[in-house]
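Customer escalation, tier 2.

The customer says the design service returned an amino acid string that "doesn't look like it belongs to this structure." They asked us to rerun it and document both sides in this ticket. The original structure tokens are below, unchanged.
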């Protein structure tokens, strides 16, 4: 399928109408035979339901297309050649995806790596090794551009190829200080994708929406660190719903950031300690060319019902509630707080800790001495340290 300019404009106007999410969009297209006819019918059918919806004007849709084009983004429709085939197989796939960068990377075999925004230094180190080795094996690394695990995964996979999924519009990078990372991804031949319109500031409900795209682009999702109510677990639940593999890196039972990942393993996710464990599981899927239009059928226990978050019109009995908030936590205020946030019960070397914190080894050693005198850390062989309690 290839939309012409008029059809693409109609698709954009329909999906941007209030109360129209992916499922309602598909219902309207199927009922009326196309976006143009659905747009004409929308005010009347919603008016009869007591909630009259008027779609955006052509001028408004044209303005969005022009704004996207100015920063090098283009809207790709579900069913078109450049639309990611794995994502298309997901039930709630976006009808339109705004893409910057090389669209070809979206149809290469990919694995998602997600985890805590307040990651430990040990978690960041594991993430870097996994992303680097998976990239070297030919897999694209997908993540959500968040602080912590996501950012480290993108940086480690820049040269082999990485895809970042935004929660807001392409001109509203979140967090804002990752704008340079976006440019680095594009310069290295990767891609950045967004479902939301230009100018859209991400809200709490937009992060779970982003997460189902992360898992939908990927053969499997690796969770490195996640507390029990972490947004990363939402990504894992979407992966299960989409029939994809779920992997988890085990962590110390004393570290709250490992509670979610350890629970995933207990409930059936594949334990991962190195890239080979991921490659072993996804290799058969790649060999079978598992990029069709149906979800992959993998036998995984259901961890929990995936969150539903569109406030869609009740066109065919589809009424969906909103989710919990998922905004970025603030950056630690000082060097001491930053190091405490990076430390965990898992020992980590001083050099790795300094690199994760973006501080000099001298500053780290001085701060660690203060923490040791306060009884906050424990020292191990080879200069490694861990958090007490």
């Amino acid at each position: 399928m290839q939309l012409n300019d008029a059809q693409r404009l109609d698709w954009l106007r329909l999906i941007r109408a209030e109360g129209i999410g992916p499922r309602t969009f598909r219902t309207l297209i199927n009922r009326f035979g196309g976006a143009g006819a659905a747009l004409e019918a929308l005010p009347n059918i919603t008016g009869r339901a007591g909630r009259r919806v008027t779609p955006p004007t052509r001028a408004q849709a044209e303005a969005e297309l022009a704004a996207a084009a100015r920063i090098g983004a283009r809207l790709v429709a579900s069913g078109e050649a450049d639309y990611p085939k794995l994502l298309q197989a997901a039930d709630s796939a976006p009808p339109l995806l705004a893409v910057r960068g090389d669209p070809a990377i979206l149809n290469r075999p990919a694995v998602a790596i997600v985890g805590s925004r307040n990651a430990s230094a040990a978690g960041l180190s594991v993430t870097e090794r996994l992303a680097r080795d998976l990239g070297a094996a030919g897999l694209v690394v997908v993540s959500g551009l968040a602080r912590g695990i996501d950012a480290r995964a993108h940086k480690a996979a820049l040269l082999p190829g990485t895809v970042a999924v935004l929660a807001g519009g392409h001109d509203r990078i979140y967090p804002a200080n990752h704008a340079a990372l976006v440019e680095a991804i594009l310069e290295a031949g990767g891609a950045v994708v967004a479902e939301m319109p230009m100018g859209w500031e991400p809200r709490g409900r937009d992060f779970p929406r982003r997460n189902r795209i992360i898992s939908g682009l990927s053969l499997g999702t690796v969770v490195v660190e996640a507390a029990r109510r972490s947004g990363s677990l939402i990504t894992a639940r979407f992966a299960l719903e989409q029939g994809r593999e779920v992997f988890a890196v085990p962590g110390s039972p004393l570290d709250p950031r490992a509670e979610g990942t350890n629970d995933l393993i207990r409930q059936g996710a594949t334990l991962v300690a190195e890239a080979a464990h991921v490659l072993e599981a996804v290799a058969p899927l790649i060999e079978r060319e598992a990029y069709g239009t149906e979800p992959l059928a993998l036998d995984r226990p259901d961890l929990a019902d995936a969150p539903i978050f569109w406030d869609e019109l009740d066109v065919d009995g589809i009424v969906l509630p909103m989710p919990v908030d998922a905004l970025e936590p603030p950056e630690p205020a000082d060097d001491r707080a930053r190091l405490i946030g990076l430390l965990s019960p898992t020992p980590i070397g001083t050099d790795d800790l300094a690199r994760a914190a973006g501080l000099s080894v001298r500053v780290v050693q001085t701060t660690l001495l203060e923490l040791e005198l306060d009884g906050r850390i424990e020292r191990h062989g080879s200069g490694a340290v861990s958090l007490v309690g």
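Tier 2 assessment: The sequence is consistent with the input. The CA atoms of residues 237 and 305 lie 7 Å apart. The chain is about 40% helix and 10% strand. Sent an explanation to the customer and offered a walkthrough call.
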